[in-house]
Amino acid sequence: MSDALKKRKSKVVRSETGTPEGKRGRGDGEQEVRVYSEEVELDGSDPAEDYRQYKLTCKALAKLMNEIQELKANGAKDGCAEVEQKRMQSCIHFMSLKKLNRLAHMRLKRGRDQTHEGKQRVDVLHLQLQNLLYEVMHMQKEISKCLEFKSKHEEIDLVSIDEFNKEAPPEISRISITKDDPHQLTLARLDWELEQRKRLAEKYKESLSSKEKIQKSIEVKKEHLSSLQPGLNAIMQASLPVQEYLSMPFEQTQKQIEIARHLPPSLYVLLVQANAYGQACDKSLSVSISGDVDEAKALAKPPDDSQDDDSGDSDAEEEQEKTKRRRPTTGGQLDDKRREMLKRHPLSLCLDLKCKDGSVLHLFFYYLMNLNIMTVKAKVSTATDLTGAISAGELLNSDTLLNCLYANDQGRETPNPANRYQFDKVGISVFGDYVAELGHPYQWVQRLGGLQFPSETPEGLRAGSSLSASHMESTMKLLRGRVQSRLALHKQFSSLEHSIVPVSSECQHLFPTKVLSRLSRWTAITHHEYTNLSFTRHVSDAGLARETDLFFLAVVERGTARLQAAVVLNPRYPEISPLFALSLSWKGERAGRSDDNLRAIESEVNVFKSELQGPRPGHQLLTNQVARLCVCLDVYLETDGQDDSVEGPREFPREKMCLRTARGPNRLKPFKYNHPQGFFSHR
Amino acid sequence: MGPVEHLHMSVFSQSFSPCGRFLAAGNNYAHEGPVFSLLSTDSHLLSAGNGEVSAWSWAELIKRNTKAVIHNLHFSLFSFVFSFISIPPLQENSLVIGGGDNNIHIMDLESGIFKSVLQGHTDYIHCLSVREREGEILSGGEDGAVRIWDCRTGHSVHCIEVFKYEDCARPQYGKWISCLTTDSDWMLCGGGPSLSLWHLRSMSPTSVFPLSGCQRQATFYQDMILSVGEGQFVSHCLMGGEVKAQIPCTPHSLNTLALNLNSTEHRVLTVGGSSHQIDVFANLYYRSFSLSF
């Protein structure tokens, strides 16, 4: 086989090389002569035919091989002619196979080349297409950019076309051209706009300059005016002596009004009303303002005020921080908070009430800013020096002088119910503790300042000046009455302590000329001592002896009989009469509760007191009551029952004239004195 | 009427209305002086005090109309009335008035005319009582005598001078008789002398009650004697002369005692005295509550 192959190869080589050689060899010389080109042959041959051919050849080959096989198997020897022939035929078949293979290859190659060419052509075209597309896109972008372009001129608000046509001068508007051409129209409009703007800028500069000129002239005038001020002051000063001469304290009132502007509203109301009342009704009343005006001014400015407060608070807090290590913070902070809450306004009013006998009642009114209440402190300055009456020590005590000016107005609690909540925050439980320092917040003080607080009993609501005005007169009268009655009591007490019962000439008719019982002692006692006395229980139980009252003990004596009288003096004396409770020690102890006659003496002194008031304003009530007490004791002792069982002279001989010594189921004695007949009868 | 007046008020007299639902009490601030005596007839309330006798209609009073004064009799200036009673059925519409002029006057209610005067006492009259069966009036006075008068004749039938009896007399107090009440056969009288029970037929004291203080009013009730006077209690005594109980009450000394017998549902005892409160006893043995002026 290898030989066949070799042969075939050589044949093929020969044919193949032969062909090109043949081509070259013959080509040079005989180009136009028939050239064997397998390529041409390729065009002519049909691939399907070739394929058939191939199949036939393979079959033949296979058949030949089989025959050879058989021959060989039958024992033919090598080099046998049949075999050789067969072998030659198979070699030929082999050659045709090779040719066919060659053709197939060539065909394939040619197809490939064609495809490649086609592809290239397509690629070129494709590239061109891409380029064009790209360019189209680019152009489109450019177009849209151009379309979007807005020129600045569209942002300017131009006047409308009609206006423009009307207003613009013809050389700019060029109506004929611009009517048709919008571009020209816009241009013209822009021109017009520009011109207008230039004109307005000119005008603006002019007006600025004129304004400056006017400003300067104003300055000059202002200076001129302010230079007048010192001149006016000088005139005012010079007019002071004239004012005094004419007794028109214009300057003073102006000053007061000036300061008064800084007063808190309730103090201002009080000032106005008091001034008005003083001018209209009561010449002896005068009002003045005292205190620090600058502080008041500082308080009046709210933003600074809050800033100050904040800085003050932060300062205080800083201090607290620093001292944290030294002392407990809550106590210190609380104290500060309390002090802050109870702060007084720096300005205060001083009201002076002059009485006929020369004594003056000074009232100092303060305003507590955070609590919105007013307080008052009182002081009495007397014309003569009041000494000598020990029991009268409490009478003019400034703390209690104004107690209960109106009923139940003790001035120890704040009248503003809102303060309760404020106090809870800072831990003040009883306002009364601070009253000594801050003054008393009486109800009438709030009313005088026009402050109305809701109370238990609904009253008519009038706030402000009308409230103050309606109470001013009554309060002033009460104040004056209070001072005078206290002063009168003072005098009376000093004589009572000397065991003299002063009875004025107008009241002499109430008592007989000869009274043998004598007042031997007059002392002041405390509420506690009063309630401890056995014979005063009924008064305490009836609620008629309160802590705000003053208590005294009087002792009337005659012979061996000793009458003790415990007196309750209400601060509103003499509107409310003093109350006496009696206890007699004479042949045993008798008290007003158990002895009907002592009870009758009590009622004589307590209940039938209207006769004892004396001349208005009734300041002699107390002394008359004491005098009557002595008279009744006389009657009691002298008319003591006929004790026939006991012999001997009576201790007290009958000297008083009585109609009947005992009347009625309870054997009452005649205690009523009849003037001028001078005898005693029953009521 | 303030608290001071309340402290010094005394109740002197009481009277229940005919229907038994209302109590009238007189104190020392009425009229021009104290009202010492109140009397209730079927339709009227009569009051007497310092020389003045007034009559009021109960019907009007219940309607709170206090202007229903019908009669207003004034006696002479220094006379006063401590007691008066009416004496039906003997003499209809008559009023017996014991006066401060030492006489007893009998007056006709309708006409207001004084029918007769009983004279005999030497000092003013404290108290009156009537014995219906025999038609006699008893009167006790400041002079210490108890006189028994015959209504028709107008003469004093008997005169008992209590202070002359040693058992009763208490000279340290005096001799006046301030309380007097009869139960036809029996008579209670007291005052300066001790409270004593007398048998009228024999005109002698049967028992003397050991009560300290002067008794101002006493009454028979069932088989007991109730008495009030000086002292802060109501005394319950038995006919035999013992003091069974002394019930405490509010006023320190009592002037008047009244039993509401007109009404069955309000059968109470009320006492008043030197206080502005009147004690009410629903059960005789303790104080139920107090009424206050």
Write the topology of this structure:
The complex is a heterodimer of chains A (683) and B (293).
Chain A: H1 2-29, H2 38-44, H3 47-73, H4 81-148, H5 161-167, H6 170-173, H7 175-180, H8 182-226, H9 229-246, H10 250-260, H11 265-280, E1 285-291, H12 293-300, H13 302-322, H14 329-341, E2 347-354, E3 360-368, E4 373-381, H15 419-426, H16 435-438, H17 443-448, H18 465-497, E5 518-525, H19 527-532, H20 537-541, E6 550-558, E7 561-569, E8 579-585, E9 589-591, H21 596-606, H22 621-638, E10 657-658, E11 672-674, E12 679-681
Parallel strand pairs in A: 10-12
Antiparallel strand pairs in A: 1-2, 2-3, 3-4, 5-6, 6-7, 7-8, 8-9, 11-12
Helix pairs in contact in A: 1-4, 3-4, 11-18, 21-22
Chain B: H1 3-7, E1 11-16, E2 23-27, E3 35-40, E4 44-49, E5 52-57, H2 58-62, E6 69-74, E7 83-86, E8 94-98, E9 103-108, E10 114-119, E11 125-131, E12 136-141, E13 145-150, E14 156-161, E15 177-182, E16 186-191, E17 196-199, E18 204-208, E19 215-221, E20 224-229, E21 233-238, E22 243-248, E23 254-259, E24 269-273, E25 277-281, E26 289-292
WD repeats (chain B): 118-159
Keywords (chain B): WD repeat
Organism (chain B): Esox lucius (Northern pike)
